[in-house]
């Protein structure tokens, strides 16, 4: 063997004849089933293949591949494994000048069939399957590095390679691989080869790998259960190049679109796989079209709601909807905060319009609103609020608050929970969820920090919006216990997160306002008791946080009176879900001694240095944003209401700046005039404007008045002249002469533009 190798290396031109001779001998030995001689011949070929690196190796390789093919066509498992090992050695050799006309179609087909071998002997079956998987790996390595060779990424090849690998991986999932020989198990080798295949895929080829994967999962019904599908896509996401991860997500989205008419269980499994895929994509973008992904998921959510509009949804449909909501949350988790706000605004745009005056009557729309609000809440939990004005832009806050006064109590509760999530910056939410009156507020261990300037500005701008909608929420006739609990939580979080004098006074005004509503409003007795309990708990909270002794004393006295004579006005009883009709008073009698006194509260705050001028005026709920109805007469611009004022001492308020405030129409003619304008004329016009400006800014006031009176007198004279002309009766028009009617048409002088 050494002599043969030395001779071939010394005379590489003889490689072709050596290969032909070995091929003839190998064919004879195969026919005669002389396995020993076959192995010797293949060993010689392998030795020559590894040792000789020359341009003449191409001629040798052709004969070598023919011999490998001859052995693979045999039925003997040992010879097939021998041929596969030789091919793998050949695949690991980097040729200087590879042959571009070489074909590997037979090897792809043969190795793929070996991956599906089903002989009775388990050891032989495992050997052949492992050999087939290694052979496919050799084909990929040999061809993937050079684009001028066979394109292994073609559909005909990938449709054989990928399912063969997945088949062995799937079979291995049911077996426990714990022995030392597990590294040679077909499932382990197939997984390694599959990772290598995905890792080598470029931008244009990743689809060629993913399509057979999806088709294999469909054909073998491997979506339900989806353990194997999750495993496959985890391997893909961990192996694919990071910048191509969004392509995998997009392929799954398209696959979900193609299966929109499948059973909910199948779609839910696809969405769950998508969710796992997004988790792995953390730290990188899920693609340039983020909103397109959310749009697709929301579209499927709407389709699911449209399909199942019955009162009792099927469990599979509910699971599918929950899977979509969770997946959207995982998508949002990987996005930067500014994009999370955009996503929440995008979801709000998909909500069917509704308001207090125009409630949604269709149960399908109510269900869709509920699902979208759950989705919005899921995204909100992934957002970390830093500044409230960033978390609540007006384009998001306005429709959110509009939805907070819809007729459905479940949707109103979800809206309040969304507001809680975005308001809570110091993890106080869980401490304020329950309506209670602790004797010492310090037991709640609240985190209260001084409000920033931006938060104070936000409170001044948007505080009235929150309070108006909370007031409308409190007076809803179909409120549940959960609704009142969320109202209290919103009030408490607003005060804790926007801590300031303005919020303090507004909180007292609102609390006294809903107390008055509960006293005089037409509400059920249970609602009135709940509102009074909210007022007591809220005033107890803010009085102890502000630490005004007189205020704390008044609140404590009122609470003590309620414990004695009106316990139904306290949270312990008003929010007890085990209450019956006998738990409440038979007559709705207002106990003034158990009410909080506005004058006492005002005096206590005034004596502590707070400005209570706004507290004197009662809380009057007004639709500050006019969601439900808009008065066009009031909203239209009124010329008499315009008040243009500018300082004569400021050059910035020149005539030119006033003209700039008016929208300038840019047309082709105007641009043409600018280009054709003489620079000198432009400078002269600018100087003239400057002179006029200086006359008004630096000239004596008497001269300006005199000049203005002269212009006014001239204008009045001209106006009188016009009015006199209008007042004169119009002269009768003379009849047309007959001669004018008999002029031949060919003598009439038409304008040039009228002639064709």
UniProtKB/TrEMBL annotation:
Q: Which GO terms describe its biological process?
A: protein localization to plasma membrane
Q: Which domain of life is it from?
A: Eukaryota
Its cellular-component GO annotations read: plasma membrane
- Cite the Gene3D superfamilies for this sequence: Leucine-rich Repeat Variant
Q: Which family does it belong to?
A: Belongs to the EFR3 family.
This chain's protein is named Uncharacterized protein
Provenance organism: Ridgeia piscesae
């Amino acid at each position: 063997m050494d002599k043969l190798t030395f001779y071939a290396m010394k005379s590489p031109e003889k490689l072709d004849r050596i290969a032909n001779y070995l091929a003839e001998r190998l064919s004879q030995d195969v026919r005669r089933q002389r396995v020993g001689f076959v192995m010797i011949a293949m060993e010689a070929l392998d030795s020559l293949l590894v040792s000789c690196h020359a341009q003449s190796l191409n001629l040798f390789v052709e004969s070598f591949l023919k011999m490998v093919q001859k052995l693979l066509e045999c039925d003997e498992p040992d010879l097939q494994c021998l041929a596969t090992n030789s091919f793998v050695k050949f695949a690991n050799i980097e040729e200087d000048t590879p042959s571009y006309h070489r074909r590997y179609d037979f090897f792809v087909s043969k190795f793929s069939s070996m991956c599906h071998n089903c002989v009775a002997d388990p050891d032989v079956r495992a050997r052949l399957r492992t050999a087939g998987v290694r052979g496919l790996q050799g084909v990929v390595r040999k061809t993937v590095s050079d684009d001028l060779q066979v394109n292994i990424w073609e559909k005909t090849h990938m449709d054989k390679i990928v399912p063969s690998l997945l088949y062995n991986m799937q079979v291995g999932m049911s077996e426990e691989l714990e022995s030392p020989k597990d590294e040679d198990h077909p499932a382990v080798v197939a997984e390694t080869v599959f990772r290598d295949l995905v890792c080598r895929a470029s931008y244009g080829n990743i689809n060629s790998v993913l399509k057979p994967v999806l088709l294999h999962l469909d054909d073998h019904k491997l979506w339900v259960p989806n353990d194997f599908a999750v495993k496959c896509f985890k391997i893909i996401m961990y192996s694919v190049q990071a910048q191509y991860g969004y392509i995998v997500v997009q392929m799954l989205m398209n696959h979900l679109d193609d299966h929109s008419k499948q059973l909910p269980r199948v779609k839910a499994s696809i969405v769950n796989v998508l969710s796992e895929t997004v988790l792995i994509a953390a730290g990188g973008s899920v693609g340039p079209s983020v909103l397109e992904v959310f749009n697709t998921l929301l579209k499927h959510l709407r389709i699911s709601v449209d399909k199942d509009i019955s009162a009792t949804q099927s469990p599979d449909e509910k699971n599918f909807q929950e899977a979509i909501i969770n997946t959207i949350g995982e998508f949002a988790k990987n996005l930067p905060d500014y994009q999370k706000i955009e996503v929440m605004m995008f979801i709000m745009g998909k909500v069917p319009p509704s308001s207090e005056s125009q409630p949604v009557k269709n149960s399908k729309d109510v269900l869709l609103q509920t699902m979208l609000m759950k989705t919005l809440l899921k995204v909100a939990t992934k957002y970390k609020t830093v500044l409230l004005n960033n978390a609540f832009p007006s384009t998001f806050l306005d429709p959110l608050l509009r939805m907070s006064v819809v007729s459905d109590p479940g949707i109103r509760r979800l809206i309040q929970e969304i507001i809680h999530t975005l308001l809570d910056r110091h993890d106080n939410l869980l401490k304020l969820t329950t309506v209670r009156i602790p004797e010492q507020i310090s037991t709640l261990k609240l985190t209260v920090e001084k409000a920033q300037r931006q938060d104070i500005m936000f409170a001044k701008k948007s505080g009235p919006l929150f309070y108006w909608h909370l007031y409308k929420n409190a007076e809803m006739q179909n409120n549940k216990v959960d609704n009142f609990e969320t109202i209290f939580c919103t009030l408490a979080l607003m005060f804790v997160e926007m801590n300031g004098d303005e919020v303090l006074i507004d909180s007292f005004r609102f609390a006294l306002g809903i107390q008055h509503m509960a006293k005089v409003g037409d509400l059920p007795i249970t609602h009135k008791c709940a509102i009074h309990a909210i007022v007591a708990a809220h005033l107890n909270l803010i009085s102890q946080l502000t630490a005004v002794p007189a205020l704390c004393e008044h609140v404590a006295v009122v609470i003590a009176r309620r414990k004695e004579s009106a316990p139904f006005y306290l949270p312990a009883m008003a929010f007890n879900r085990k209450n019956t009709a006998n738990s409440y008073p038979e007559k709705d009698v207002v106990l003034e001694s158990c009410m909080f006194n506005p004058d006492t509260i005002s005096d206590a705050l005034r004596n502590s240095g707070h400005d209570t001028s706004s507290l004197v005026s009662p809380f009057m709920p007004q639709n500050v944003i006019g969601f439900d109805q808009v008065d066009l007469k009031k909203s239209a611009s009124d010329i008499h209401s315009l008040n243009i004022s500018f300082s004569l001492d400021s050059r910035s308020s020149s005539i030119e700046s006033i003209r700039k405030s008016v929208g300038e129409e840019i047309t082709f003619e105007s641009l043409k005039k600018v280009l054709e304008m003489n620079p000198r004329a432009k400078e002269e016009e600018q100087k003239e404007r400057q002179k006029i400006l200086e006359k008004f800014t630096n000239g004596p006031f008497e001269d300006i008045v005199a000049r203005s009176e002269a212009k006014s007198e001239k204008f009045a004279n001209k106006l009188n002249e016009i009015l006199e002309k209008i007042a004169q009766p119009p002269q009768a028009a003379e009849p047309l002469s007959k001669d004018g009617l008999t002029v031949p048409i060919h003598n009439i002088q038409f304008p040039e533009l009228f002639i064709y």
